Amino acid sequence: MHESCGVFGVYSPGEDVARLTYFALFALQHRGQESAGIAIADGKRMQVAGDMGLVSRVFDEETLSGLIGHIAIGHNRYSTRGSSRVSNVQPFLVGKGNHTIGIAHNGNIINAELLHEELVQHGYTFRTSTDTEVIASLIISSPGKDWVDRIRYAMHRLQGAYSLCLLTRDSLYAVRDPWGVRPLCLGVINGGWVVASESCALDHIGAQFIREIEPGEILRISENGLDSYQEQVERRALCIFEYIYFARPDSIINGKLLYPIRQAMGAGLAEEHPVEADMVMGVPDSATAAGIGYSLATGMPFCEGLMKNRYIGRTFIQPDQRIRDLGVRLKFNPLPQMLDGKRLVVVDDSIVRGTTTPKVVDLLRKAGVKEVHMRICAPPIRYPCFLGVDMATRQELIAARKSVEEIRNFIGADSLGYLSVEGLLKAVAMPRELFCMVCFTGDYPMPVQLEMDKLALEIPDRALQEKGHQIASFT
CA of 463: how far to CAs of 82, 161, 381, in Å? Predict the structure, then answer.
């Protein structure tokens, strides 16, 4: 399962907001590694800079020093709508003159194709293949006396998940969809305001966490301070995978630190699926806390049986066939001296397609592990997500096609246990009504097409695909 995206915004006169955004994006790098960008405004002029790759590759001192202003938004992308290419790098600026906005988006709009067609018929042209540009164009085309009115009108047309940071010449806006599918929080820094996908980004820049932005809430931050506008909320549907995998364990969601919640997931697995073994390990890094929770609940020692290379998959250099054949060995290296002859409980966050887990099991067996008992923090994933997670089609989901015993046999484990939905909710310690759990239950919080094309808005223009580093300014 792949990450969603990370968004950040700051309004703080007197601060180097481009540099603050740069370091906040570092903290949100786990949410997307395809591209990074920053847009900035100084009250009169708007600028944007971005490119493919990690934050550290995209920005240098020269680029950051050219981004001058007191308002900024930033974005780390993992593509869930539109291909991974430079023309789709966010944030981008949309509109003309006083009707120009910058936008950074985390989520997925399920009626984007319909809205795109409608906007094209009204004369709007698109330079990206993202639903994010559809959102921006819809806001610009909406009636209203100010941006808040236009955003409100657009929210009534949009269906799906969106946590937004919006930039105008003189204001910052933060918007969360009425279901609250993706997280968004608010903080303060030296008299200014910041918003971010996760609270860990606030910690890294020295900002103080204030609260989470509510589902259906619009925040406007300007020289007049902060104003909040609340739209009607019918059902909350925060993605449960923010707790299991997406968010960093040092982030706060719904007022709770995630690390002890993940430990509780491991303890729940120990209660639901006990087994006699010698040691426990968590697949790094996302299942480390849950592995420790399993260890504490059972008294079995915890070990780091696999060392993770955290930079694999984040390079533009393609491996040759000999290196590619190493497969999962590129990402993990076992510790045979720790594992030889041991009965091992292996805690992981999820099994999606079932392509990686058999390789991990095989790697451990080759390192001398006597027994491998897989324990999974997420219940079986049987339904695809259309709300901002690039997961898989239903045909690709192994739990949609196989029983637990068939999956155990397929991955080559001695036993396999999934945390139940009830056990997951017990670990989170919050009501089921707050969450979207469609990937386990098939209960979509809104009507969706059961087959959606990630590339439906694609532009067949090689000039856009081959365009270089994106730096532009609008006055």
Answer: 16, 30, 39
- Asked if the peptide bond before residue 178 counts as cis, ω within 30 degrees of 0, the response is no
Determine the Cα–Cα distance for residues 420 and 438; give it in Å rounded to an integer.
14
CATH number for the region 6-237+458-466 comes to 3.60.20.10
Catalytic positions are 5
Among 140, 138, 85, smallest CA distance to 116 is for 138
Q: Which of 73, 78, 67 is nearest to 31 (CA)?
A: 78
Cα 131 to chain centroid, rounded: 16
Q: How many Å apart are CA 462 and CA 385, to the nearest integer?
A: 30
What is the CB neighbour count within 10 angstroms for residue 431? 9
> Going by C-beta distance under 8 Å and a sequence separation of 6 or more, which residues neighbour residue 52?
34, 35, 58, 84, 85, 86, 89
| Rg of the Cα atoms in the chain | 23
Q: If DSSP codes are grouped into helix, strand and coil, which group holds residue 41?
A: strand
CATH architecture for the domain at 252-309+317-441: 3-Layer(aba) Sandwich (3.40)
> In whole angstroms, what is the distance from residue 41 CA to residue 170 CA?
7
DSSP letter (8 states) at residue 99: G
pLDDT in tens, 178-223: 999 999 999 999 999 999 999 999 999 999 999 999 999 999 999 9
pTM as predicted: 0.89
